[in-house]
Amino acid sequence: MELTVPLEQPITYCLYARKSSESDERQVMRIDSQQKEMQALAIKENLKVTEILQESHSAKDSGQRPMFMKLLSDI
Description:
This protein is of the alpha+beta class. It has one domain (15-74). It contains 2 helices and 2 strands. It is flat. This is Helicase. It comes from Candidatus Woesebacteria bacterium GW2011_GWB1_38_8b.
């Protein structure tokens, strides 16, 4: 009887960038800057990025970040 060992799935990553639409001066980094930083780190660390999500609006109330909710659902 031959035993089969399940193949491990490689870990994949999703980048998530968010910027509130409230006030630009209060933001640390714009979305495009966030993405560039994350992509550079992914390359440096040899991470397999399969998706990049972004959103740009205020989320004062709970559940107001649809792309973040998608990310959690996908996990």
